[in-house]
Design goal:
Layout: H1 2-30, H2 39-62, H3 72-91
Length: 95
């Protein structure tokens, strides 16, 4: 069981880190600290969006429309945190 638990925890840890980077970068772009006209910033932003959009899109379909406020990253982050801390240890018998 540990052979399955370890890689799943690692994948969820990487997803958590990428989501945190995406959320912070979106704040920096919205507050105009980062400019999407810069090629490096633009490439990182597009890459993060391509990675995370398959995770966010099903959540956006379920959530009600809140206008400019996108709650999908917050919900996805909470799901990843709860999976890492509570759900996986219970499933694999570590709790």
């Amino acid at each position: 069981m540990l052979a399955i638990y370890g890689p799943i925890q690692l994948i969820l840890g990487v997803v958590y880190f990428v989501m945190i980077v995406h959320i912070i970068m979106s704040w920096l772009i919205n507050f105009q600290v980062l400019n999407l006209q810069q090629p490096l910033v633009s490439q990182i932003w597009v890459g993060l969006n391509r990675l995370l959009e398959p995770i966010y899109e099903p959540i956006r379909r379920i959530l009600p429309n809140t206008g400019a406020l996108d709650l999908a990253p917050l919900i996805a982050l909470l799901i990843v945190i709860s999976m890492r801390a509570y759900i996986l240890p219970v499933i694999f018998g570590f709790a």
